[in-house]
Amino acid sequence: MTRGSLGTAPESADPRQTTRMTVNGETVEREVSVRMLLSDFLRHELGLTGTHVGCEHGVCGACTVMIDGRAGRSCLTFAVQADGADIRTIESVAGEDGSLHPLQEAFRDCHALQCGYCTPGMIMNILSHMEAGENLDMSDQEIRELLSGNLCRCTGYANIVKAVRQVADQSNRISP
Questions:
Q1: 26-33 vs 16-23, strand pairing mode
Q2: Which of 45, 67, 69, 166 is deepest in the core (most CB within 10 A)?
Q3: What tens digit of pLDDT does each residue of 114-157 get?
Q4: Could you count the other beta carbons within 10 Å of the beta carbon of residue 22?
Q5: Does 20 lie in the same domain as 88?
């Protein structure tokens, strides 16, 4: 192949390993490079493109998914590390009939998104805390602390805080 010509990339010499996990309630098994990130596995192997990749350093939170019920950065986790894990992505949040989850509705109702790139990661982060049944302090400061691992470049967070408060007020599990 000459310089500048297009062709297929050579097969990676990375060792490969079989990984099996449950993703959004469905068991999947693939043989992958031991260096493949969970974010790439979800997006490229499974076609779940709701998991966004932002900084690729675990700083922005756009790639946040639930790993065994806890929020985790899929850009910092190798797919093989998730072997045997239960993974949930944003695609699992809406109802089977397409109805929005109350947290998604709150983001819509409160205009808590603009470009929407950070939204899936934010929702998965917040949802992991709410589903864990944690008794969360929902003061503005504590909501901002809860969101501190997810960066948004568009909204200024005021409406995101408002959306989280709306859902907290609707669920009686969270103290005001």
A1: antiparallel
A2: 67
A3: 899 999 999 999 999 989 877 777 888 999 999 999 999 888 89
A4: 15
A5: yes
